């Protein structure tokens, strides 16, 4: 309890003094911030609501977005390699995001920040603005996000926050090498034609692709330990961020169903069907 | 008061759409100024080029721009340097009837697709041209650059648009394509989007010629400041050389999953692909196991394909894979497991051992024309 009080106090003083920490926190004292999102579990077959207002999310299994797990794992590895001193996990959304942050803490994040934005979905631009505000408070040397959330499939937030901060970006990363001395990150990116390599000056934003790493599981002792770690709560208003809904969801519908197919019994029949029925060969 | 004056100056500046652009002779015809500029739909397409041609995927973005833009005033923006850029510009000028202007940003810093530079370029060009829409392709280039540019312009972009219902009403897939979301852009800035290229294909667009070529103008980069010190550097691109057609535009795609068991066995699939003139794709399991490089992955997080024929060998059909191929015209699945989910989307299914089926197919299929 006392420890928690001390940490909160430290955070408050950090928030006030702002860039006093820039110098002190560079190099080995670098802080890594990771954004994590709570989404419908990747294995769930989603259902569209009958009134077409959205996708059913009540009584559905929710988990941390898989790309966010990879982002967090990478941050933890950077800390374990001695390049960073602290990993801070951030989540924007309703009260239940705290569960996702607990998972992050159980995996090994040092502390967490929950930006309580209420139940309505928040657009990537607003998330980026919130993260920008937090970056200005926390002064991390590196910001790691997943490349996309598997619910909205936007693939925007990392790029947008990099733009707002005018930091360099290494998106769709499959390998990240940090050079503490030179303050650069070498990032291998998964692009359409193959693998592209970039060198970015820190501070930078990195978004993770699937092949960056294999996230660890939280062990039971770490899950217990996570319960005593700090989750700070703030609101967008406290960060002076106005949520801007410039995109309206008009409706959410089911995609057209494919007509039932047939099971053929041999290669000959398959070729025959492709030639004469589908007329494709 | 000062703020109002500044706003007025901004508006005035924006009312002269092409002021900072110097048209290169002989194409000096600048677009006529319309009566009501506020209702004027003018679309900027951010395009990529390769080997002196606008990339096929960018031609899809131009096709999408033509859907938004009934007034045939699509501006294509190309960046790079040298002869390759000039050749691509003349291709862009004649590739589609809706293209009314080609903008060329000639600078060495634009040769490599660095998001930092390109996003600033889009921002720069938008402030001069005041476009109502900015469109690019939802590939690794577009997804990297456009959201960053949108943040600079304080706009929420729309990812992976599959249908344009109205100039501000779009349909896009969410939840790995298991739902289609209709969104309306209600913001004040330009409407920015990446489009799914398989949803905006043009038959023989690349060979289509216009009687009158669109004028080509240089973007005046003398005041372009992409950040005084570059914060990112392009080091290299390692790509797999392949004789196969491009996965994104192939007419036929053959895909292997975990069932192929080894990289060696993928060679068998390549032989079949050769016979069919097909591109080879893979599932995440096959890529993770190291059978094939990552750029062959088809799915929610890999490439989205919609060929005429998609043949899946040893693919179970996870939600994430189906997201990348469910719009294929004809789907064929070959799997030992009769309960594999892939059979629920397949038009033709064959429950059999792929190691027997593939050689038989290679033997019995007619040669490609």
UniProtKB/TrEMBL annotation, chain A:
InterPro entries: ET-Flavoprotein_bsu_CS, ETF_a/b_N, ETF_b, ETF_beta_N, Rossmann-like_a/b/a_fold
Organism domain of life: Eukaryota
One Pfam family here: ETF
Localization (cell): Mitochondrion matrix
Keywords annotated in UniProt: Electron transport, Mitochondrion, Transport
Main location: mitochondrion
Bias (Basic and acidic residues) ranges: 1-17
Gene Ontology process terms (BP): fatty acid beta-oxidation using acyl-CoA dehydrogenase
MF (Gene Ontology): electron transfer activity
UniProt keyword annotation of Electron transport present: yes
Residue stretches making up the Electron transfer flavoprotein alpha/beta-subunit N-terminal domain: 52-243
CDD domains, per database record: ETF_beta
GO cellular component: mitochondrial matrix; mitochondrion
Biological function: The electron transfer flavoprotein serves as a specific electron acceptor for several dehydrogenases, including five acyl-CoA dehydrogenases, glutaryl-CoA and sarcosine dehydrogenase. It transfers the electrons to the main mitochondrial respiratory chain via ETF-ubiquinone oxidoreductase (ETF dehydrogenase).
Quaternary structure note: Heterodimer of an alpha and a beta subunit.
Name of the featured protein: Electron transfer flavoprotein subunit beta
Natural source organism: Musa acuminata subsp. malaccensis (Wild banana)
Automatic annotation (TrEMBL), chain B:
Alphabetized SMART domains for the sequence: ETF
GO term, biological process aspect, one: fatty acid beta-oxidation using acyl-CoA dehydrogenase
Cell compartments where the protein resides: Mitochondrion matrix
Primary location class: mitochondrion
Cofactor: FAD
Keyword tRNA processing carried by entry: no
Binding site for FAD: 258, 283-284, 297-301, 314-321, 335
Entry note: cofactor: Binds 1 FAD per dimer.
Record's keyword terms, sorted: Electron transport, FAD, Flavoprotein, Mitochondrion, Transit peptide, Transport
GO cellular component: mitochondrial matrix; mitochondrion
GO molecular function, one term: electron transfer activity
Domain of life: Eukaryota
Ranges for domain Electron transfer flavoprotein alpha/beta-subunit N-terminal: 43-228
SUPFAM superfamilies in alphabetical order: Adenine nucleotide alpha hydrolases-like (SSF52402), DHS-like NAD/FAD-binding domain (SSF52467)
Family membership noted in the UniProt record: Belongs to the ETF alpha-subunit/FixB family.
Quaternary data: Heterodimer of an alpha and a beta subunit.
Protein role: The electron transfer flavoprotein serves as a specific electron acceptor for several dehydrogenases, including five acyl-CoA dehydrogenases, glutaryl-CoA and sarcosine dehydrogenase. It transfers the electrons to the main mitochondrial respiratory chain via ETF-ubiquinone oxidoreductase (ETF dehydrogenase).
Record's protein name: Electron transfer flavoprotein subunit alpha
Organism of this sequence: Musa acuminata subsp. malaccensis (Wild banana)
Lineage of the organism: Eukaryota, Viridiplantae, Streptophyta, Embryophyta, Tracheophyta
């Amino acid at each position: 309890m006392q420890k928690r009080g001390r940490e909160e106090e430290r955070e408050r003083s950090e928030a006030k003094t702002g860039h006093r920490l820039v110098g002190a926190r560079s190099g080995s004292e670098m802080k890594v911030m990771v954004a994590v999102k709570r989404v419908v579990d990747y294995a769930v077959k989603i259902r569209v609501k009958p009134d077409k207002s959205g996708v059913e999310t009540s009584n559905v299994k929710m988990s941390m977005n898989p790309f966010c797990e990879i982002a967090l794992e990478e941050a933890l590895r950077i800390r374990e390699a001695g390049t960073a001193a602290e990993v801070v996990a951030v989540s924007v959304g309703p009260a239940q995001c705290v569960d996702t942050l607990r998972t992050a803490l159980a995996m090994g994040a040092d502390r967490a920040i929950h930006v309580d934005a209420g139940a309505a979905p928040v657009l990537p631009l607003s998330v980026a603005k919130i993260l920008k505000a937090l970056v200005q408070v926390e002064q991390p040397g590196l910001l790691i996000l997943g490349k996309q959330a598997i619910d909205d499939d936007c693939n925007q937030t990392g790029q947008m926050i990099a733009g707002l901060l005018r930091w360099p970006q290494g998106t769709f990363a499959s390998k990240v090498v940090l050079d503490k001395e030179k303050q650069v990150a070498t990032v291998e990116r998964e692009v359409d034609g193959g693998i592209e390599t970039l060198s970015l000056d820190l501070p930078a934003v990195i978004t993770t692709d699937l092949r960056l790493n294999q996230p660890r599981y939280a062990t039971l002792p770490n899950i217990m330990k996570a319960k005593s770690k700090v989750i700070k709560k703030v609101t967008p208003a406290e960060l002076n961020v106005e949520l801007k809904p410039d995109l309206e969801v008009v409706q959410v519908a089911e995609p057209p169903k494919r007509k039932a197919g047939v099971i053929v019994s041999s290669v000959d029949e398959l070729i025959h069907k492709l030639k004469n029925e589908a007329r494709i060969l | 008061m000062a703020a109002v004056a500044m706003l007025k100056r901004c508006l005035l500046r924006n009312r002269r759409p092409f002021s900072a652009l110097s048209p290169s002779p002989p194409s000096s015809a600048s677009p006529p100024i319309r009566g009501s500029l506020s209702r004027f739909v003018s679309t900027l397409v951010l395009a990529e080029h390769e080997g002196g041609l606008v990339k096929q995927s960018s031609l899809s973005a131009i096709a999408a721009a033509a859907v938004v833009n009934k007034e045939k005033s699509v501006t294509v923006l190309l960046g790079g340097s040298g002869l390759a850029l000039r050749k691509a510009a003349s291709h862009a000028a004649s590739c589609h009837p809706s293209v009314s202007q080609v903008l060329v940003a000639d600078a060495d810093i634009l040769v490599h697709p660095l998001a930092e530079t390109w996003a600033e370029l889009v921002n720069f060009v938008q402030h001069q041209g005041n476009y109502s829409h900015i469109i690019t392709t939802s590939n690794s280039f577009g997804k990297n650059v456009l959201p960053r540019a949108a943040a600079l312009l304080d706009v929420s972009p729309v990812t992976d648009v599959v249908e344009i219902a109205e100039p501000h009403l779009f349909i896009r897939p969410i939840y790995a394509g298991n739902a289609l979301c209709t969104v309306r852009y209600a913001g004040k800035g330009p409407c920015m989007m990446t489009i799914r290229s398989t949803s905006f294909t043009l038959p023989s667009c690349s060979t289509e010629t216009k009687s009158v070529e669109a004028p080509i103008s240089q973007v005046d980069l003398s005041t372009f400041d992409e950040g005084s010190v570059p914060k990112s550097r392009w080091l290299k691109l390692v790509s797999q050389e392949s004789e196969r057609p491009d996965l994104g535009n192939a007419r036929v795609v053959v895909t292997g999953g975990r069932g192929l068991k080894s990289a060696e066995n993928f060679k068998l699939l390549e032989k079949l692909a050769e016979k069919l003139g097909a591109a080879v794709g893979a599932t995440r399991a096959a890529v993770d196991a190291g059978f094939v490089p990552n750029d062959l992955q088809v799915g929610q997080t890999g490439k989205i394909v919609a060929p005429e024929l998609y043949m899946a060998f040893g693919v179970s059909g996870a939600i994430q894979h189906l997201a990348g191929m469910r719009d294929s015209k004809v789907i064929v699945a070959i799997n030992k497991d009769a309960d594999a989910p892939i059979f629920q989307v397949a038009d033709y299914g064959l429950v059999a051992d792929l190691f027997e089926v593939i050689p038989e197919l290679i033997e019995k299929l007619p040669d490609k024309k």
